Structure formats: structure tokens, C-alpha cells
């Protein structure tokens, strides 16, 4: 599937950006030319060969801070997507098979989670249950999981009612076999789309929280944090916020592009995704298509 | 008319059947937060060096030494009477504190919603009417672009250009409506715009998709063949059938507009709901945080109820659960 995505121009751009960002997350802290926490004598310096992106109000190298902070932001986004995936998909598939009470219960839970303003919840829970991005992302992941629940459920429903599955069951296939053999294949493409979108959502949330300074201890660098610090010194360095902003937006955009590319490649469109779209649209400032 | 009333009653009935469990689950989770967090008013009032006896005395005073379910029943009972308890931080009535903040946040969210509806529907209709032309592509492109701009980025850009640069708007703070409508509007305009981008782009794209799909239906071709005018076709056939998903999106947007307040209020320095939530959470003031969560759940539920009613009126098929 990767190869088919890479054949699309949009897919190539998306994969390229995401690969770069992924490399930043892995090697960023190593590549950083300076210690991101070390203050220097040069305060608010303009870009130069010594400091490619200048220095901040404490004389810290901005490039190093961005490189070092990439890991927190990206891991956070990935964590949101993976938790939502695990929490959402399994009940989504099982809701079709485990009978009415389970179906009713999970549907109500999904409704509840969608109805909660998740940024408020993330802030509340982060502060109350321990100040950390992993805790916050755990909560956000759970609150985003209805997307996966509905996607998986919609796809499963469409398979479960198809004639070939009925035929398989008449021929004596077990539910487990049907899920492994037929449902799984059908559920995967929309899940891949949702995964790309949720990563984008997670990314916006991490950036928002770190921008507000929630979930991180002050000197630790994050993209949102660098942006917030730049804002205090706009009159000295009006261009400074552009760099972290561009990083954040490019990453979110790449996630959305990738989601579109997967959808184009797998031909996932139409009814099964109608629910997805509306739910996804309810999530945040990211995710969704033209 | 009676048919309309019956449909309304059915939508109300179904919505209540969905929202009551939502409310129960959400409030229970909210209440359980205190037990999970292990926080106590003693932390706030006595600090780190408190003796266990003093902590126990304070917890007794707040009734926190009673069984969990007893506390929950009490709390829930008070909640239904509109009493959200008192803040651990300063002993003030939480409902009163929240009301002050909610006025600000709802002003901003309301204006953002208005902007979202006007521009979202405007752009959506425009793109659909000029579908596959450059107008359509331009609108779609812009909508895609603004959808990846996080609200804090938009907020910063607006402050930088329109408030600090051009000086057209105040850069921060809130002025109550008593100080004049213009002053009030000037203070909430920028945060509302920052908050609305997401809604504008989603509503516009959803509406465009819905309308374009509706234009492809056979009954539209039929209407054209019968010689109906473009106006009549658009309003009677296309709009009513294509508007459903975008209204549903609007309903789901409301939690975001409330949640986004946490970010925009921090940027624009407004003492609203979101700032109250963030501040209380960082102080460890559990009852205040619970109050914020409960009120936001109620607001979201009420708003969705309204959207469902409008949806049932505009697109009768949705009332039958199609």
C-alpha cells in the first residue's frame, strides 16, 4: 500500500514530510548543535552561521530547542492515534457480534466521549492526575477513540450483512474466523485513514497544550513552547514565530494529505465514511478532506 | 403542523434517550476524578507540611471521609438543583464563578458560531454553485489551508496584524456589554475569528460535498427537465437534501468551540471559562474543575438537542433515523 500511496504526488509529499519529521523525532536531540537548555551571552540574536535560527530571550539556540523538542510533540501525536486505535477498534468490531446490551453500552459511551469538549478535559485531567504529556495524550486518545469505534463498526456492519459472509456462516464458519478472514480486511483501510487523521489531531492537541505550558516542565523544549516564548519578543524578532508555526502546520497538513492519499488509493469513500467524516469533523482543528 | 409537532416530539424523545445516559456517564466520570486524583482540599489549605490529623479534620469538614457512593449521591443531588459546591481554593460558590466566566466564553463561542455559520454556509454554497470552476477550487483550497491552522496560530496572527500592527482591535482582555455594544464586540471579535476557522472550513466543505451530491440526484435532473427555475431547484430540492451533514457537523463543532476557549482565552487574556478551567486544574481545585466539566457537558447536550430539532425540520428523513 505504501508503494501505491507513493505513486500519488500528494502521497509523496505527505510521506516525505512525515518521514522527515519522524527522523527529527528519532535523531533530533542528537543533531542539535547546542544544549537546548544552555543559555548563552547572545540574547535574541538573529540567524547566523553560529545559530542558524537565532537565539531566544535566554540566549538559547532556537534550532537546538526545536530539534530537541520534536520528540515530545511527535511521540504525543502518535500516542494519541495508537491509544484511540486500540480503545476504539476492538469494541467497534465486537459491537456487531456481542449482542444488543454490549452494542447499546458502547454506542452510549461513544456518544458521551464525542459530547465532551476534549481540550477542557485534557487540561483538567493533566493537571489533576499528574502533569505530563503522556497522561494528557492518554486522555485525548480515549476521547478521540469514538472515531475508530464508528469506523470499525460501520465497516464491520457492511461486511456482516454481505452475502459472502452469510454464506461462510451457513457453511459453518465461526465468528472468529469471519472476523479474521473477512472483517479485518474491510476494516483496515478506513482505519488507516482514521489513523492518519487522528495523528494530525493529536499533533494539534500536543502543540496547543505545550503552547499553553500544560503538561511540560518549563525549561524542557517543545514546539509549542518555543512558539509561546517567541511571542513575548515579537518586537525584536517578528519573524521568529514563523519557524515553529511552519513546522506544526506542515506536519498537520502532511497527516491530512496522507489520509486523503490512503482514501484515494483504497477507494474508501461513500457511506462507510460518512459517519467518520462527521465524527472526525467534531474532533479538532485537524483532520478531514476537501 | 401536527405532523411537524409529532416529528419534533419524536426527535426530542430520541435525543433525550441518548442524552440522559450521556449525562449520567459524563457526570460520573467527572465525579470519579477526585478519587482518582487523590487530591484533597487539605493540600490547598495546609500545604505540604500538614499533620495527618489536620488533613483528616479538613477532609471530614468537606465530607470526604464518607463512602464514595454517598458522596456521589450528594454531589449529584446538589448538581440537579444547580449547586456545584464551593471552591477549595477560596470557598466561593462555583456556580457563581462559572457564570461569570461562561458569559465571556459564550459570547466568544456564540460569535464564532455565527461566523462559522455565515461564512461556512456562504463558501459552501458558493463552491457548490460554481462547482468544478476556479472559484470552487480556490474556495476548497483556502478551506483546506485554514483547516490545518491551529487556533493559537490564527489567534497570534490576528493579534500581530490587526491588534498590534494596525491597532484596529484591542489585543487582549474583555469588556462586558454594559460598557457599550461596540466595545464588547471589539474585544470578542478576534478570539471569535480565531476560534471560527475550524468551523468555517468544516461546514463549508461538508456543505459543498452535500450540495454537489444532491445536484447529481435524478430528482434534480427531473426538476430541470420539468422546467423549474434554478432558484426553486436550489432551495426546494438541493439545499434541503444536501444540508444534513453540514448541520450535523455544526452540532459536533460546539464542544470544540467551548474547548477551544482554553487556548484562545489564554492568548487574548480573557478571564473566561477556559482560563477558569486551566487555572483551577493547575491549582488542584477539584470541585471547580468538576463544575467546568459538568457545565460544558450540559451546554453541549443542549446545543445538540437544538441542532437535532433543526435537522428534523429541515431534513425530515433524519427524524426517521435514516
Automatic annotation (TrEMBL), chain A:
Task: Give one Pfam hit by family name.
Answer: BPD_transp_1
Concerning Gene3D superfamilies, the annotation shows: MetI-like (1.10.3720.10)
The UniProt record lists the ABC transmembrane type-1 domain at: 70-259
Q: Write down the species.
A: Asanoa iriomotensis
Q: Which UniProt keywords apply?
A: Cell membrane, Membrane, Transmembrane, Transmembrane helix, Transport
Instruction: Note the InterPro entries from the entry.
Output: BP-dependent_transpt_permease, MetI-like, MetI-like_sf
Where exactly are the transmembrane stretches of this chain?
Answer: 12-32, 74-97, 109-129, 135-152, 191-214
Name of the protein described by the UniProt record: Peptide ABC transporter permease
The text of the family note is: Belongs to the binding-protein-dependent transport system permease family.
Q: How does it sit in the membrane?
A: Multi-pass membrane protein
Task: List the subcellular locations.
Answer: Cell membrane
Amino acid at each position: 500500500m505504501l508503494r501505491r500511496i507513493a505513486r500519488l504526488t500528494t502521497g509523496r509529499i505527505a510521506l516525505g514530510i512525515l518521514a522527515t519529521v519522524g527522523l527529527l523525532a528519532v535523531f533530533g536531540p542528537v543533531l542539535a548543535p547546542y544544549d537546548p537548555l544552555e543559555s548563552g551571552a547572545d540574547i535574541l540574536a538573529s540567524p547566523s552561521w553560529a545559530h542558524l535560527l537565532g537565539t531566544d530571550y535566554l540566549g538559547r539556540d532556537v534550532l537546538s530547542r526545536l530539534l530537541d523538542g520534536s520528540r515530545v510533540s511527535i511521540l504525543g501525536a502518535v500516542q494519541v492515534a495508537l491509544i484511540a486505535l486500540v480503545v476504539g477498534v476492538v469494541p467497534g468490531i465486537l459491537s456487531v457480534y456481542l449482542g444488543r446490551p454490549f452494542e447499546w453500552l458502547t454506542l452510549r459511551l461513544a456518544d458521551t466521549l464525542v459530547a465532551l469538549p476534549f481540550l477542557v478535559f485534557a487540561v483538567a485531567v493533566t493537571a489533576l492526575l499528574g502533569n505530563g504529556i503522556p497522561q494528557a495524550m492518554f486522555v485525548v486518545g480515549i476521547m478521540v477513540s469514538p472515531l475508530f469505534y464508528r469506523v470499525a463498526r460501520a465497516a464491520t456492519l457492511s461486511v456482516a450483512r454481505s452475502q459472502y459472509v452469510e454464506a461462510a456462516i451457513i457453511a459453518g464458519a465461526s465468528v472468529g474466523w469471519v472476523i479474521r478472514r473477512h472483517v479485518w480486511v474491510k476494516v483496515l483501510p478506513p482505519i488507516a485513514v482514521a489513523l492518519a487523521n487522528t495523528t494530525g489531531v493529536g499533533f494539534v492537541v500536543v502543540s496547543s497544550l505545550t503552547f499553553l505550558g500544560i503538561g511540560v516542565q518549563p525549561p524542557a523544549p517543545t514546539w509549542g513552547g518555543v512558539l509561546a516564548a517567541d511571542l513575548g519578543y515579537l518586537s525584536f524578532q517578528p519573524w521568529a514565530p514563523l519557524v515553529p508555526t511552519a513546522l506544526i502546520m506542515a506536519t498537520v497538513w502532511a497527516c491530512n494529505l496522507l489520509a486523503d492519499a490512503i482514501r484515494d488509493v483504497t477507494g474508501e469513500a461513500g457511506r462507510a465514511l460518512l459517519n467518520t467524516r462527521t465524527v472526525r469533523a467534531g474532533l479538532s482543528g485537524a483532520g478531514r478532506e476537501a | 403542523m401536527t405532523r411537524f409537532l409529532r416529528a419534533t416530539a419524536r426527535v426530542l424523545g430520541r435525543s433525550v434517550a441518548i442524552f440522559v445516559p450521556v449525562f449520567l456517564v459524563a457526570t460520573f466520570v467527572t465525579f470519579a476524578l477526585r478519587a482518582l486524583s487523590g487530591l484533597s482540599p487539605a493540600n490547598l489549605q495546609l500545604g505540604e507540611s500538614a499533620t495527618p490529623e489536620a488533613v483528616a479534620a479538613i477532609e471530614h469538614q468537606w465530607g470526604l471521609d464518607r463512602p464514595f457512593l454517598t458522596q456521589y449521591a450528594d454531589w449529584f443531588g446538589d448538581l440537579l438543583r444547580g449547586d456545584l459546591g464551593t471552591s477549595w481554593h477560596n470557598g466561593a460558590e462555583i456556580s457563581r464563578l462559572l457564570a461569570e466566566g461562561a458569559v465571556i466564553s459564550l459570547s466568544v463561542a456564540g460569535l464564532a458560531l455565527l461566523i462559522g455559520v455565515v461564512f461556512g454556509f456562504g463558501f459552501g454554497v458558493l463552491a457548490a454553485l460554481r462547482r468544478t470552476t476556479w472559484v470552487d477550487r480556490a474556495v476548497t483550497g483556502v478551506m483546506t489551508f485554514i483547516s490545518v491552522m491551529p487556533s493559537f496560530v490564527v489567534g497570534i496572527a490576528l493579534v500581530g496584524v490587526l491588534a498590534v500592527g494596525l491597532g484596529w482591535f484591542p489585543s487582549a482582555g474583555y469588556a462586558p456589554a454594559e460598557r457599550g455594544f461596540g466595545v464588547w464586540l471589539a474585544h470578542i471579535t478576534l478570539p471569535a475569528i480565531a476560534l471560527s476557522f475550524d468551523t468555517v472550513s468544516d461546514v463549508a466543505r461538508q456543505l459543498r460535498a452535500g450540495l454537489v451530491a444532491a445536484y447529481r440526484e435524478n430528482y434534480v435532473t427531473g426538476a430541470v427537465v420539468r422546467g423549474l427555475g434554478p432558484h426553486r431547484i436550489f432551495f426546494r430540492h438541493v439545499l434541503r437534501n444536501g444540508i444534513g451533514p453540514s448541520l450535523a457537523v455544526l452540532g459536533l463543532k460546539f464542544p470544540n468551540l467551548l474547548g477551544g476557549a482554553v487556548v484562545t482565552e489564554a492568548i487574548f487574556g480573557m478571564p473566561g471559562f477556559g482560563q477558569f478551567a486551566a487555572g483551577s486544574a493547575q491549582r488542584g481545585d477539584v470541585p471547580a474543575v468538576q463544575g467546568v466539566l459538568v457545565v460544558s457537558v450540559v451546554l453541549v447536550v443542549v446545543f445538540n438537542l437544538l441542532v437535532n430539532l433543526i435537522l428534523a425540520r429541515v431534513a425530515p428523513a433524519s427524524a426517521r433515523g435514516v
